[in-house]
Amino acid sequence: MAKSTAENTNLRLKSVLDVLTEGTWTGDALNAGGVLAEATVRVPFSPHEAELLSGGIPRGHKTLTSATAKLVKAGWLVKGRSGWTITEDGMRATVAFADADAFAAALDAGTPVPADTPVPVAPVAAPAKVAAARTTRKSAVVKNAEAADETVTKAPAKKAPAKKAPAKKAAEAVGKAAKIIEEAVEPVVKAVRARKAAPKTKSEASVAASLEGPDVETFPQPEAVAVAGDFNTLLGAPENWAPQYDEAQMAFDFVAQQWKINAELPAGYYTFKIALNRSWEENYGAFGTFDGPNHELHHDGGAVTIRYDHRTRDITIN
Q1: 49 and 171 in contact (C-beta within 8 Å)?
Q2: Taking every pair of C-alpha atoms in the chain, what is the biggest distance, in angstroms?
Q3: Is the Cα torsion angle 233, 235, 236, 239 positive or negative in sign?
């Protein structure tokens, strides 16, 4: 019986901890993108999860990225600018809650890891086995995609596409997601920040000029900052998750050295990210993580102010 998206996501969250634990045994230094890619290889996307969203990210990948916040909240994972690190409790959680159902229940309930749970140790010849297994799994994804292509070529035109397209699409989605996330590492961030092109339009020139504020201590700021999320249309933008529109832009407070936006929103649950310079090239999610999981807003309805501090990547909502 096919598993639900929630069940698959919990399995992938456990895989994230498993991958990071194995990394401590082998000395492998996988970045966040590599960890997530391996988790999706171990627990492949269903056809529904493999569907690409407007940003070109598979639905299941976006769900997994957001769900990793649970691991941080549980104290099992630390997300830093240099990468992700599993904590000792996180390693012990893979032993205490080895069963998928037990792991999901403990994560949702905030169940602490029993104090007497040992830290897992590498099995004999673990480095070779883990590396071989990882290579085998990744090769299997490629072979599945190739097999799908071959079947489409040989089988009758009416039957082959319907049967093999989901497998091929899932494999392509995993590869695309891995590539996107692997590129979102610190060197890329530095390159983006270092790229200071002169304003090309009157609008951009106006924004750049507006940053010449009062004589206060300043920190280098982007030309524009947007709150890009699922409520942009409520602000008057043509579509959601689109940082290029004026309606999503924040205003810069020179004295506070923060960007802010005021809005009137109906009661509800909203998600968003901070996107710089009217594009997704540089964006920040929860915990100030580059291309990280979405910020969440549980709103009672009415006026709300969102502030963003570019120095710390922190946001405040009130």
Answers
A1: no
A2: 73
A3: negative
Q: Which pLDDT band holds residue 84 (cuts at 50, 70, 90)? A: confident
pTM for this entry = 0.46
Q: 170-204: b or e for each residue (b if 16 or more CB lie within 10 Å)?
A: bbbbbbebbebbbebbeeebeeeeeeeeeeeeeeb
The domains of the chain are located at 5-183, 202-317
Q: Tens of pLDDT along 146-176?
A: 443 443 334 344 444 444 445 455 555 555 5
Class of domain 202-317: mainly beta
Phi first, then psi, for residue 272 (nearest 5°) are -165, 170
State how far the Cα of 246 lies from the Cα of 235, in Å rounded to an integer. 10
By CB atoms closer than 10 A (0-12, 13-18, 19+), residue 223 is: middle
Write the burial class of residue 26 (CB in 10 Å: 0-12 exposed, 13-18 middle, 19+ buried).
middle
Q: Are 70 and 13 in contact (CB under 8 A)?
A: yes
Residue 218's SS3 state is coil
Phi, psi angle pair for 10, to nearest 5°: -65, -40
